[in-house]
Amino acid sequence: MTRRARIALLVLTALAASAIAGCNKTQTATVAETEGIYVTVDELTYQVQLSRLLNPASPEDSHYLRGLAEDEQELDADEVWFAVFIRVENETKEELSAADEFEIVDTQDSRFEPVELDEDVNSFVYEPGSIGPGELLPVPNSPPSDNTIQGALILFKLKTEALYNRPLEFEIHSSQGGDDAVVDLDV
Question: How far apart are CA 57 and CA 75, in angstroms?
């Protein structure tokens, strides 16, 4: 191959790479078909790290249930504890408010709202508030950040029948009047 042919080939390769890179722009996603996918609400990036049933008899799970109000501690025979662990990142250059309204919805349109936990008793609790530029929630080097899940806890009481009406959808509601996001939970 001549020197001119090699240069022409390099130029064409560079142009093709530029064209491909130009087409590979990040899009804002508001729907995720599974956990682990990033969704955006009010310019913040949310990721469901994990969702699962909790067993109050398990030493690990009993820590996630600390801080329940006395009238919330007992489950009815047709209820289960269900945890969603999320991570939130602010990739903008301004301080933004994290979502403070969530729901789990089953295929029969049954809706479940989070159970309140006392954050002074339970260090794993998701605490909405302002997130500065480049910051994460949970805060790095905190218990929810340093455990294997690496997400802040949002606790629900679900009816057992909801587990049969899957997929369960985790809705993140905009606090600014923007688009909500929905994540299908892996149950």
Answer: 13
Residue 172, number of CB atoms within 10 A of its CB: 28
Contacts 24+ apart (CB under 8 A), 141-149: 144/85, 149/49, 149/50, 149/85
**CA–CA gap between residue 172 and residue 119 (Å, rounded):** 20
Beta bridge partners of residue 105, listed in sequence order: 111, 169
Q: Domain ranges in the chain?
A: 26-185
CATH of 26-185, one of 3.40.50.2300, 3.30.1360.70, 3.40.640.10, 2.60.40.4170: 2.60.40.4170
Tens of pLDDT, residue by residue over 87-144, are 999 999 999 999 999 999 999 999 999 999 999 999 999 999 999 999 999 999 999 9
Predicted local confidence at residue 133, as pLDDT: 97
Q: Which residue has the tokens 């390099």?
A: 10
118 Cβ contact list (under 8 Å, min separation 6): 66, 67, 68, 69, 125
What pTM, to 2 d.p., does this model score? 0.84
How far is CA 82 from each of CA 4, 9, 20, 122, 127, rounded to the nearest angstrom?
65, 57, 43, 16, 18
